[in-house]
Write a structure and sequence with these properties.
It contains twelve helices and eight strands. By secondary structure, the chain is of the alpha/beta class.
Length: 331
């Protein structure tokens, strides 16, 4: 059974990172510290794992189950856990969904299958979600990719999916178009059975939230969850003075995290946590590779500009250090 019954995805939902040891094995202790750190931020409403940020494409089914169990053990009693469904085949997607539901996840983030291209055969997309909903009643979060990449769902297809599969309760909107993003917000959140739009537009998060998103789901929350939560709260309370100031700090990090090549975005976030003293090792699994020293320096400067790191390399007062986290993890 889900830990949080009748859960509806909304608010600030960081997608956490997955620490590895130098041999690329999962570092369970470092992961627990990371979960306690991000999950302990005031304003965070849930955590997402087994997604891009945890390098799910490099994790076996058994490792995905281990990641979920570690997450549930660390913070599952306090926060809903959303588990990613990363599978090209609907039968494999069902297997992952069953595993997640039985373990105690509170929601599922459904990635688009690679076989769905350019909006062709929308019934394929409907069938994928219908199959997942057959094996679990957990709320589903549809991952909306950019249409330009060929794997995004056109709005007409989105509406068919949410009409056919009532358990779709939110979308993680990465459409990459401000105009289309606003259409999604106005169309989906106004349905008789509302579907929340969770922004993943970290490069223009301020603008996205002002449009009226009912939350955000972002990998950069693994580093800046506090800034995101404060920005979301400021916008929801129409405190635009505070929101603009927070946006300046967030932009300092997003312009570096989401620079090209974008495949390195979560790699950069791991390096940021090392610089902040929250992670000892920034190892990533191949084909991802270690960042250059020049790029790590750019990340360091971005953290300083965001007010998260002092110029001398020490974390600022509002950043908890690794020793404190290790003590919390051991308790």
């Amino acid at each position: 059974m889900p830990r949080f019954k009748n859960y509806v995805p909304e608010g600030v939902i960081p997608a956490v990172l997955l620490p590895f040891k130098e041999d690329c094995s999962i570092d369970a202790q470092a992961f627990r510290r990371h979960l306690l750190d991000v999950g302990g931020v005031d304003g965070v409403t849930a955590l997402t794992l087994n997604a891009h940020s945890t390098e799910v494409s490099s994790c076996s089914f058994d490792e995905q189950r281990e990641v979920l169990e570690l997450g549930l053990d660390a913070v599952g009693g306090r926060l809903p856990i959303i588990n990613g469904i990363y599978a090209d085949g609907s039968i494999e997607a069902q297997r992952i969904a069953r595993m997640a539901a039985e373990a105690g996840a509170s929601g599922l983030l459904v990635f688009p299958p690679n076989v769905f291209r350019n909006g062709q055969r929308p019934e394929m997309a409907v069938e994928h979600f219908r199959r997942i909903a057959e094996v679990t009643d957990l709320p589903l979060v549809l991952f909306q990719y950019p249409l330009a990449g060929g794997m995004g769902y056109p709005l007409a297809t989105l509406l068919k999916i949410v009409d056919a599969v009532p358990s779709v309760r939110a979308i993680k909107d990465g459409c990459a178009s401000p105009e289309l993003h606003e259409q999604h917000i106005r169309s989906l959140q106004a349905l008789p059975r509302p579907v929340n739009v969770l922004s993943t537009h970290s490069a223009w998060l301020f603008s996205s939230l002002v449009m009226g998103c009912n939350g955000l789901l972002s990998g950069s929350g693994s580093v800046i969850a506090d800034l995101q939560a404060r920005l979301y709260r400021a916008i929801r309370t129409d405190d635009l003075v505070s929101a603009r100031a927070l946006n300046t700090r967030i932009r300092a990090t997003s312009t570096v995290f989401y620079a090209e090549p974008r495949a390195d975005m979560h790699n950069r976030m791991k390096e940021a946590l090392v610089l902040l003293g929250k992670l000892r090792c920034a190892a990533v699994r191949p084909p991802l590779v270690k960042l250059s020293s020049a790029e790590i320096q750019r990340i360091r400067l971005a953290l300083i500009a965001a007010g998260l790191l002092a110029a001398d390399g020490g974390a600022n007062d509002d950043v908890r250090n690794l020793g404190m986290l290790e003590k919390s993890a051991a308790e």
